[in-house]
Amino acid sequence: MPQPEHGVTTDGARQMLRTAGMRVTAARMAVLEVLGEHPHATADTVAKLVATRLGSVSKQAVYDVLAACTGAGLLRRIEPAGSAARFETRIGDNHHHLVCRRCGRTEDVDCTVGQRPCLTPSDDAGFAVEEAEIVFWGLCPDCQGQGTIHHHNTKELQS
Ligand SMILES: [Zn+2]
Ligand SMILES: [Zn+2]
């Protein structure tokens, strides 16, 4: 089966866990594989997808795996304003995100500079700046097409 661009194979997931010095468990492998296929999934979505693979696994167990893998640097956690935290296996490349205000669709944007921080503050107040986390907000192509429909959220969306 062809793997998506940032897909994680079973072997890949095992290797990621071993490299991070983490015990290899079915739940951890499943979380990494699911996120390889569904980048930017929320914890709830990951829990649902992992449950369909493993049968019974508690939400809390999946949340624990997400936290452990994020802590170990295997996952990146992004938290766009007003959205649940989202997770991805594409780590360490300082990429950014486009987020649709209406449906929450999230897409990767490569960093144009290639190294962090790719933006420098006009006044860094003496901070040693390591990273700039950028979210580009707007409407995805599908949602732009619905622009003329009077949606009950329209007012909120325009603010
Ligand atoms: Zn959208
Ligand atoms: Zn991403």
Describe this entry's structure for a reader.
With 159 residues, the chain is an alpha+beta fold. It has a domain at 10-78: Winged helix-like DNA-binding domain superfamily/Winged helix DNA-binding domain (Arc Repressor Mutant, subunit A, Orthogonal Bundle), CATH 1.10.10.10. The protein contains six helices and six strands, in the order ααβααβββββαα. The strands form two sheets. The protein has a three-stranded antiparallel beta sheet with strand order 1-3-2. The chain has a three-stranded mixed beta sheet with strand order 5-4-6, with no helix packed on it. A hairpin with a 7-residue loop joins β2 (76-78) and β3 (86-88). The radius of gyration is 18 Å and the shape is globular. The protein binds zinc ion (2 copies).
Question: What characteristics describe this protein?
Answer:
159 residues; alpha+beta; Arc Repressor Mutant, subunit A; three-stranded antiparallel β-sheet; three-stranded mixed β-sheet; 6 helices; binds zinc ion
